[in-house]
Write the structure tokens for this entry.
Amino acid sequence: MRIGFVVLGVVLTLLGAVLMFIPLVTVSSQNISSNELYTANVTGYSITGTVAGTLTWSTNASTTFTFRTCSVAATPTLNGYTCPGTQTNSSESGTSGTFTFSARSGGEIVAYFDAGTGTTGSVSVKLAQETIGLIVLVLGVLLLLLGLVLKRTVKPVPPAPSPTPTAPPRS
């Protein structure tokens, strides 16, 4: 039983660490057309203050895709949007690509592609689930400690069989 707690604790600790820092869960997926703005809020609890994520995009024609992360929510304007606070900018050309980012919790990501009329594309965003990862990590550490602290159960030694009397040798 003790070794089971230790093994389960190690497995849950590793799984929790993975869930905290590797984007696994799709939080948004949307089709957009040319010059349409894609925005998504970055929400969730984060120990570091930032949430890791990936944005995957694809279009039906070659284009330039622009991606930005904003430290606070973006504000729509007549010419697109304003990204107050700090921001990061990236762009790629082609028909598909992936951006890996780390955005501030409470911030926003903004993406769009420039293409001719009739061009459409899709955007999919995955974020690391730090809250779930933290819970699994804490549970794993507790089980690991429990397994290390529990005393080893010692099986009682079976009593030795009583010696059988032997007859004295015949003379």
Remarks:
- Residues 26-127 form a domain with the Jelly Rolls fold (CATH 2.60.120).
- Residues 16 and 105 are 19 Å apart (CA to CA).
- The mean pLDDT is 79.
- Strands lie at 25-33, 38-41, 50-70, 75-77, 80-82, 87-104, 108-114, 120-127.
